[in-house]
Amino acid sequence: MRIGIDVGGTNTDSVLINNNKIESSFKTNTSEDISNSVKLSISEVIQNQPKEKINSIIIGTTHLINDLLERKNLSKTGVIRLCGPATRLLKPLCDWPDDIKKSNNFITDFTDGGLEFDGREISAVNKSEIQKLCEIYKKEQVESIAITGVFASVNPYQELEVKNIILNEMGKIPVSMSHQIGRIGLLERENATILNAMLSKSAKKTFANLTKIITELNLKSKIYITQNDGTMASINDALNYPIFSLSSGPTNSMRGAAFLSGIKDGIVIDIGGTSTDIGMLINSFPKESSIAVEFSGIRTNFRMADVLSIPLGGGSIINQKTPYVSNQSLGNHITTDSLSFNGSTTTITDIFTNQNKANFIPPNKNFKLSSNLIKSVENEIYSKISIAVDRMKTDSKNIKAIVVGGGSFIIPKKLDGVDLIKFPKFGEVANAIGSSMAQISGYSEKVFSTTDLSRDEIIEISKNEAIENAVKKGAEKKSIEIIDFEEIPLSYLPSNAVTIKTRAVGNIKNEFN
Amino acid sequence: MEKVRGAESGRALKELENYLGKKATAVISGEIGGSNSLEPLIAAGENNIPVVDGDGMGRAFPEIHMKTFFIYGVSWTPAVVCDEKGNTALFTDAISAHWLEKMARAVTIQMGCAAVFATAPMTGVEVKQTAIHGTLSLAKEVGKAVQKSQKSKQNPIENILKAYPGKLLFEGKITDLSRTTTDGFARGYVTINGTNNFSENELKIEFQNENLIAYINDKIECMVPDLICIIDTETGEPITTELLRYGFRVSVLALPAPENLCTKKALEVVGPKGFGYDFDYENLLKIPRK
Hints:
The complex is a heterodimer.
Chain A lengths: L1 E6 L3 E8 L2 E9 L4 H13 L9 E6 L1 H8 L6 E6 L15 H6 L2 E6 L15 H14 L3 E6 L7 H14 L4 E3 L8 H13 L1 H17 L5 E5 L5 E3 H6 L8 H13 L4 E6 L4 E7 L2 E2 L6 E3 L2 E3 L6 E4 L5 E3 L6 E5 L4 H4 L10 H6 L17 H22 L6 E6 L13 E5 L7 H7 L3 E10 L5 H18 L8 E9 L7 E10 L7
Parallel strand pairs in A: 1-4, 4-9, 5-6, 5-7, 7-8, 11-19, 19-20
Antiparallel strand pairs in A: 1-2, 2-3, 9-10, 11-12, 12-13, 12-16, 14-15, 17-18, 21-23, 22-23
Helix pairs in contact in A: 1-7, 4-5, 9-13
Chain B lengths: L7 H13 L6 E3 L9 H9 L3 E5 L12 H4 L7 E4 L5 E4 L5 H14 L5 E3 L5 H7 L1 E2 L1 H18 L3 H8 L3 E16 L2 E10 L7 E7 L1 E7 L2 E5 L3 E6 L16 E7 L8 H7 L20
Parallel strand pairs in B: 1-2
Antiparallel strand pairs in B: 2-6, 3-4, 3-5, 7-8, 7-13, 8-9, 9-10, 10-11, 12-13
Helix pairs in contact in B: 1-2, 6-7
């Protein structure tokens, strides 16, 4: 049995899953210290089940991103770029917001090292240069180090060499290496690596608390943390790569929707009180964004779900004239200020409680809404959702849609371009279910020259590397599938260079049947 | 993407100056498309001289001999190629701009596929006569239009067309893509199925690094040197041929090429025949040129 928990900004949702069936679910407010709500959730969903049967607890949290936004618990970071004479015109952190540069002390340096696109060295690593930097780091009490080598994705040996020198000089200190963090694209990868290094203190604080709960509740379970891309990481990996767990909420709800509905390819509509998130599922995983992802004003290039968020939810306030549905929502105040709860504001929810179409019985039903208003609001919802769905579709064919989230009842039973809509049971805790369903992934991204190797050989090397990476992280080999493959020719290069990206995912070993 | 600039930009200019025994009073971009538009700003900044607002293509083209400087008679040598490691290659003679391109490419690959190229020393009069004027400002305006649209959630396509008057040729979703890389060029075609006002129609674009010919339902609607730009409909960001991918929602803009690219002399090089087509350029856009 396993428990899935999603710690959101307002709610903490949890589910207990046994043999792919939902035994129980629980929803509570997120407490100031998230460990309280996590502890409560675990106790509630376990109910009378024997504790030894709970073998894993999988948690998604927004705690790290909150620390980043509030600039707290961030590590003092040493930033090394292995570049030799190359790339020196643009310094590390050059495009970061001023306040974050100031809120944290960085020490940044260019050093010898770096590779060409084909793996030749720009220059070799200079051991004494790194040793000298370590002396400065010790004096300045640096807490975490970020290493980024030019074209380290082609061959990581220089970054590994530098990490070893640092560990020898400084003992135990978190070291982030760019080849494990980001894709090709120096500045974005370097940004992500620095972010990762800065978050090591926050990650330690968050995840150490979570481990403590397990002991307190006398459980023997393993804990995992969900990542931005729908896969999970061990506590150890989450401590080493906190950046991958920065934003897993939207992905979890999409994964949960896929599980609840049995639909592998389709569109997920997750509707809450304030907004609706819409994203495409491809082979049970969210489609990734093709645009650079920004965190708190810092540009990165790593894997994130492509989600369209529109201001439409159960709490959306209704205007007196067209367009009736406004972009404002009552949010948490819906339970005090809306007509259904004896307040004076008309919301979308009231349109539905008035017709007995909501999934709950409101305290107040004695208000009258004109049939014209009801019809106009329903039409506006229909067209808003249909347009958003169409924007996210990847081709013009009709698709299947899955509706989850607390506001599901406002979604019409028919939409343009959609030939089947499912409203799965337990849809309101889809995000926690998504957490419990998380898988382990392996990734490979490299530039190849097609003059030395055939295309088939290149693809084989890339796939094997992705599978190996998944196995290394604990995936069961026979369950691994290649779910994403992409080749990008690098033009202007006569050696026919090509970038190959491959991603493999599998179930965690000995955990799920 | 990976090798952002080091000291090579400023040095390329100095090496050329050393060979000529003269100081440059200004620099100009050879190509306003892509990163080449910003290269002279780095060299000028490092050497503390001004940049001329203009370039040698008014757009992007795949090869050196397609620059207006050379089409209108400026010499392509001497030229230097510099890398960040301190290597310099000087080309004192090349029998054609095409040969210069081939030799410079060979050197660039050895330098790690990223190098800075300085060429075409010109007098002020030559710049005035052969360059395409005002393109640095134009590129900045187009960029501002996109940024403004993203910030204020306005339609980026409309704002781009305000900055660079042209027309919205098509809107749709990429449904087919064929791309092969040969001799360092990405050749192929992309097919886009229409949406909104363009539904039931199909647009096909043939490209060689840059988009060359656009067909709507097999009829040519825009041809090189007029610009065919594939833009992300939502963000207004350009989608270059390397980044084309199935499923992208795009708008295709047709923008009139500057006058300098449409003379008889220029069309021999940068018109359809310059790219191996057997037909002559025809002005299908009928939009005033700059």
